[in-house]
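I keep forgetting this: the sequence line spells out the residues, with the fold written below as integer tokens. I include a record here:
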Amino acid sequence: MITNRPNGSIYTKIENKIATIEFGHPASNSFVAEMLDRLTDAFNKLASNSSISIIILKSESERAFCAGASFDELLAVSTLEEGKIFFSGFAKVINAMRNCNKIIVGRIQGKTVGGGVGLVAACDYVFATVDAPIRLSELTIGIAPLVIEPAVERKIGIAPISELSLAPTEWKNAYWAQEKGLYSKVFDTTKEMDNELYFFAQKLANYNPKALIEWRKILWKNTDHWGTLLIERAAITGKLALSEFTKTALSEFKK
């Protein structure tokens, strides 16, 4: 399914103790604010659903996994408060994933940019294809990946995130992402990935759910301060987004 809705789509399906969240947007699966709010709500609702143990996060079609935040909405930011609200979207999603008591498995089938890398980093286990390179392009438009940095650094460390962010026009391939710890497994084809992913998820879903919950608490230890930190980072990024550099860069990019 490929959505043509300007506000995108978020679908949730539950089967055999596994919930699958699928998002989509005609602009390379980028996120408008409404979608981020809906994705946050989806994780919060699933966290309280005792019938599931595993959540799979995926995007629609075979194109990009996620192109990050909506450039059109970013261009429309005109005040500090609007900037803070806009960048708080990814902050809220990452915090919802962090607070979720279910194991989250990412399915990454294509290119991932900016905030999308943050979503991948907030997953507990990630399957990807060789067609899933990553890039942090924020510096090219005058901002920085401040909001997603804690999630990405937690997964890959400060040296790799420095390498990734300070070369914002360069793509890092899927094997680089696997070597650094962002991806757990990489496959040659989507079919191979999906076969392994659903076998893995079903097996995991049959483990003791209480054990999974307790273990996930350990995996996410020392992150309680993110509730405040990511929103503070959103405010800083929103201020950067109001700069003339960013407005000009976004306008040129759109052309």
